[in-house]
Amino acid sequence: MVVRSIERRSVYPTGNVVRRALLTLRGEGVRSFWFKLLGQLGYRRLLVLDQPLDRAVPQFSPTLPVAIAQLTGDELDDYLAFRPDTRRADALARLAAGQICFVARRDGRIVAADWIATQPIRLSYLDCVLDMAPGDVCIYDKFILPSCRGHGISNALRTHHLRQLWRDGHRRVVVAVLPENASSLRDILKGGYRPCGIIGRIKVGRWQRHFRKEPPKT
């Protein structure tokens, strides 16, 4: 892992600090509150999970019908309407770097999407670059509209890109998630991923150190 200086943005909503802390404590529990507090103080980590692409992936149909396809540059306005928190320049930079975005549409409107990187990817949360071996791909920035969750769209989107990546000859898919993000982690584990490591950062003032370690025993 190569460390680079990159722009960092808060992973928490803006507003009163005490209010954000109380919302985290109330909604996510003491453990999540503690690690988010540590994250603000300089200690952050992500759980890395992977899945080998060594066999064909079966088709999956969601209970809410959607059309899944790769996003093109001409459709960027549709994506930005779906993800208004994403800057146009950032989305264009991703596409220019060869990254792929798969989107799920319902009645022509994007309701879910994720991104795929085949080259080393910057993790702004850890202020580092995640290197990948040849044949590896990284899935990141997955998002589904709250009104469309619980209908299997996440599984359909995952199945679509896994089938495409398998046909293209890729060997392994990697994702990184906050261990306290229970809903995302549960969804990822249901998709066949298994923990393969933990990456993190310790930062004090200008000094920082990145680390990797084995995942916790299950």
Folded structure, characterized:
The chain has 218 residues and is α+β, with helices and mostly antiparallel strands. It has one domain (17-213): Gcn5-related N-acetyltransferase (GNAT) (Aminopeptidase, 3-Layer(aba) Sandwich), CATH 3.40.630.30. The protein has 5 helices and 10 strands. A hairpin with a 2-residue loop joins strand 9 and strand 10 (207-213). The longest helix is centred in the first third of the chain and has 25 residues, at 17-41. It is globular and about 50 Å long. Residues 1-18 have low confidence and may be disordered.
Topology:
Layout: H1 17-41, E1 43-52, E2 67-70, H2 76-82, H3 88-96, E3 100-106, E4 109-117, E5 121-123, E6 128-130, E7 136-144, H4 153-167, E8 172-177, H5 182-190, E9 194-204, E10 207-213
Parallel strand pairs: 7-8
Antiparallel strand pairs: 1-8, 1-9, 2-3, 3-4, 4-7, 5-6, 9-10
Radius of gyration: 18 Å
Helix content: 25-40%
Sheet with most strands: strand arrangement: 2-3-4-7-8-1-9-10
CATH-defined superfamily = Gcn5-related N-acetyltransferase (GNAT)
Q: Which architecture per CATH?
A: 3-Layer(aba) Sandwich
And the CATH topology?
Aminopeptidase
Largest sheet: 8 strands, mixed
